């Protein structure tokens, strides 16, 4: 091929002409979801419209409902979902079936300067520059219309409560917010957002067009403009260029386009970018984003070999020590002249309220949201924001500090923990602002109660002996027991704890049981084989007994969860709210003719201590008890078994009268299956 004023193909000269009649108006349509052999040329086009600036085109075409490939039932169902049962002029499908579809365009490329449409005639090649290359794909906007119809129907069904809703709206609180001047970064983020782009696209009006088929006379007339119209005029001079110049004109060198990087949020920073900052800025950025962090975790995020002493100096500038963990300072999160994103409260007031929340967490592990809100007097959303930054909500326990106390850091750095600047340098003005006395502002140092420990084997043996000796008189004793709580503490000779066994804390919370203070008038704790066993209240006993009759096998963790749900259903001030310890709950379980099943969990098991304490109903007075007892004895030797093993053991112990229905009932009541193995309920997690 020789390039010059003409194109030469195998010694055949071809004149090239540039046609400009349709320049700026010629678009190439591609249909990527349609085979090239199946064109839309003969498909009736119902409408066409374009947004020229955005190069957005929509075409509406008919669907052949008589085609053997058309599913009539589906088409009618789609029309029903979109338009409903009413007949209106605004309906999308007037024929009560989906008889048309819409194609919407997306740009295949934004730069079409190197693309042209070419036609060849009588040894001449005519080129017309393309304005755009658009890919036409089916639009599913009718799905959005169906969803809108569905929401409208639901709203109409709920219209009966509109008067009540209006009454509630009358007393709704109105919060007035004042917009601040928009910064340049905020403006850049806004104009690059999806919402802004959608708004700009919606602002340009549609230009409606008339579609002419490929065989229409008007189309044939327009196709003539693809040929150069001024071939005989003097301006069509011969192109005088060298081969290399002409090749460069056809294929210009690729130049790197300057890409404007979008301005990301101010809190997004990669670790590579972070480590280019000074150490102080690294620490400040990390604490501002994480908010609560142990010192060891902070060192792990910094570059290897960073001096811990330098990090300590930096972190004390931007964070405070709470329970051995570092919490970012309030003035770092809420700088001067800023305000709350929720309520518009000034930064100074926010810092004061958040500092009080931080101080409360130095006093105790958990705080109550209502108590905090009553003192700092800030909007609920701000109080919740403070608490979510440094704590997690616990059922019936308020908000608990998010991390465990880092005693190792406090022991290793006592100078930091007890530094005068670290002992809450703001406490003076907190005292003044919130009218707190100096005694209230002092950090409370409460010695933990002395816990008496007893091994699990001791408690199981004591419970078994008591069940055998007192089974006949258990209900009689309960009915004759006087009202009141047993305030006598459990005193058991302390014995060494075997390896791998967690000691059990037998002390009662706040020196009380079931809400009644310790006194000498209450009934003493039951004594069995030299051990004291607290007698639970009748109501607690009834709850535990009913729970195990329903579930048969439960871990201590699951019993506690069910008990908390039961407490949530009781009215405020009920006697069961008076502090039921884990020890008392386990005593109640063992007194309900239940036993602890010592399941031999694997050493690598990740189950928590409460999840490894498994209790099961041992005796109910039914003949089926012996089936359960054989099953539990099997699980005392292995934490998972096969059905065939259960069937063999039952046959050995109980004879050939064991049926498939008996085994099905037993496994359904007490076990769960994963794969081909059976586990006691609660001892395995999916």
Short description:
This protein is of the alpha+beta class and 686 residues long.
Characterization of this structure:
With about 675 residues, the protein is of the alpha+beta class. The protein has 3 domains: about 1-65 and about 100-155 and about 180-265, no CATH class; about 275-440, no CATH class; about 455-480 and about 505-680, no CATH class. It is built from 27 helices and 28 strands. A hairpin with a 2-residue loop joins strand 27 (about 670-675) and strand 28. Helix 13 (about 345-365) packs across helix 15. The protein starts with a strand and ends in a 6-residue tail after the last strand. This is Polymerase (RNA) III (DNA directed) polypeptide E. One of its GO terms (biological process) is tRNA transcription by RNA polymerase III. One of its GO terms (cellular component) is RNA polymerase III complex.
Question: Structural class, judged by helices and strands?
Answer: alpha+beta
Helix-residue proportion: 25-40%
Radius of gyration: 40 Å
Tell me the β content.
15-25%
- Count of β-strands: 28
Strand order of the largest sheet: 4-10-7-6-5-11
The residue-averaged pLDDT reads 76
Mass-distribution shape: extended
Largest pleated sheet: 6 strands, mixed
Biased composition (Basic and acidic residues): 145-156, 456-469
Pfam family, one: RPC5_C
Region (Disordered): 145-171, 454-534
InterPro entries: RNA_pol_III_Rpc5, RPC5_C
Fold blueprint:
Blueprint lengths: L1 E2 L3 E3 L2 E7 L8 E4 L14 E7 L4 E7 L9 H12 L16 E8 L8 E6 L2 E6 L2 E8 L1 H17 L4 H9 L13 H8 L2 H10 L3 E3 L7 H7 L19 H8 L20 H4 L4 H12 L1 E2 L1 H7 L6 H11 E4 L2 E4 L1 H4 L13 H17 L2 E2 L1 H8 L3 H11 E4 L3 E4 L5 H6 L1 H4 L9 H8 L3 H4 L11 E2 L1 H15 L3 H7 L23 E2 L6 E2 L2 E2 L8 E3 L2 E3 L4 H14 L1 E3 H13 L13 H9 L3 E4 L16 E4 L7 H11 L7 H12 L5 H11 E4 L2 E4 L6
Parallel strand pairs: 3-9, 4-10
Antiparallel strand pairs: 1-2, 2-3, 5-6, 5-11, 6-7, 7-10, 8-9, 12-14, 13-14, 15-17, 16-17, 18-19, 20-21, 22-23, 24-26, 25-26, 27-28
Helix pairs in contact: 1-2, 9-11, 13-15, 25-26
């Amino acid at each position: 091929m020789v390039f010059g004023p003409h194109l030469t193909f195998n010694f055949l000269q071809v004149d090239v002409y540039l046609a400009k009649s349709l320049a700026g108006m010629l678009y190439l349509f591609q249909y990527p979801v349609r085979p090239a052999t199946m064109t839309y040329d003969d498909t009736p086009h119902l409408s066409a419209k374009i947004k020229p600036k955005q190069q957005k085109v929509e075409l509406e075409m008919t669907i052949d409902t008589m085609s053997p490939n058309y599913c009539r039932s589906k088409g009618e169902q789609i029309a029903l979902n979109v338009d409903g049962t009413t007949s209106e002029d605004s309906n999308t499908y007037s024929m009560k079936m989906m008889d048309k579809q819409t194609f919407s365009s997306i740009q295949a490329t934004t730069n079409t300067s190197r693309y042209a449409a070419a036609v060849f005639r009588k040894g001449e090649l005519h080129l017309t520059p393309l304005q755009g290359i658009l890919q036409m794909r089916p639009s599913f906007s009718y799905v959005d219309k169906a969803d809108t119809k569905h929401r409208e129907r639901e709203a109409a069904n709920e219209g009966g409560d509109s008067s009540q809703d209006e009454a509630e709206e009358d007393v709704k609180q109105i919060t007035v917010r004042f917009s601040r001047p928009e910064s340049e970064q905020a403006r850049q983020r806004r104009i690059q957002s999806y919402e802004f782009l959608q708004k700009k696209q919606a602002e340009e009006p549609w230009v409606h067009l008339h579609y002419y088929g490929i065989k229409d006379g008007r189309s044939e007339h327009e196709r003539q403009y693809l040929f150069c119209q001024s071939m005989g005029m003097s301006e069509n001079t011969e192109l005088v260029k060298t081969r290399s110049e002409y090749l460069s004109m056809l294929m210009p060198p690729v130049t790197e386009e300057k890409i404007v990087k979008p301005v990301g949020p101010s809190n997004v920073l990669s670790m590579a970018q972070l480590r280019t900052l000074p150490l102080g800025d690294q620490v400040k950025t990390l604490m501002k984003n994480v908010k609560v962090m142990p010192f060891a975790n902070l060192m792990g995020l910094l570059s290897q070999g960073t001096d811990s002493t330098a990090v300590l100096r930096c972190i004390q500038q931007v964070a405070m020590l709470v329970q051995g963990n570092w919490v970012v300072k309030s003035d770092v999160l809420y700088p001067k002249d800023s305000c709350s994103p929720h309520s518009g409260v000034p930064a100074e007031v926010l810092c004061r309220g958040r500092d009080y929340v931080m101080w409360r967490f130095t006093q105790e592990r958990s705080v109550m949201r209502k108590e905090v809100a009553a003192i700092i007097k800030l909007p609920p959303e701000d109080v919740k924001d403070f608490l979510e930054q440094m704590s997690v909500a616990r059922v019936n326990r308020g908000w608990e500090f998010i991390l465990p106390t880092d005693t190792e850091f406090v022991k290793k750095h006592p100078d930091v923990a007890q530094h005068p600047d670290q002992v809450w340098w703001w406490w003076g003005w907190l005292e003044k602002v919130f009218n707190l006395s100096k005694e209230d502002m002092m950090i409370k140092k409460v010695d933990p109660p002395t816990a008496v420990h007893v091994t699990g084997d001791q408690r199981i043996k004591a419970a078994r002996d008591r069940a055998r000796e007192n089974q006949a008189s258990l209900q009689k004793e309960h009915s004759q027991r006087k009202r009141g709580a047993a305030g006598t503490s459990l005193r058991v000779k302390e014995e060494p704890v075997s390896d791998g066994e967690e000691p059990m804390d037998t002390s009662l919370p706040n020196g009380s049981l079931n809400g009644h203070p310790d006194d000498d008038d209450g009934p003493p704790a039951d004594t069995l084989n030299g051990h004291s066993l607290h007698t639970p209240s009748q109501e607690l006993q009834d709850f535990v007994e009913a729970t195990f009759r329903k579930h048969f096998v439960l871990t201590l963790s699951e019993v506690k969860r069910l008990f908390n749900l039961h407490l949530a259903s009781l009215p405020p001030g009920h006697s069961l709210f008076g502090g039921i310890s884990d020890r008392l709950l386990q005593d109640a379980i063992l007194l309900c003719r239940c036993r602890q099943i010592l399941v031999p969990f694997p050493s690598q098991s990740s189950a928590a201590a409460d999840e490894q304490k498994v209790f099961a109903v041992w005796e109910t007075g039914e003949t089926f008890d012996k089936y359960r007892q054989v099953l539990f004895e099997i699980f005392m030797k292995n934490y998972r078994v096969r059905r065939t093993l259960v069937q063999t053991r039952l046959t050995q112990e109980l004879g050939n009268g064991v049926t498939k229905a008996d085994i099905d009932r037993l496994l359904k009541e007490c076990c769960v299956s994963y794969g081909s193995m059976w586990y006691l309920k609660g001892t395995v997690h999916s």
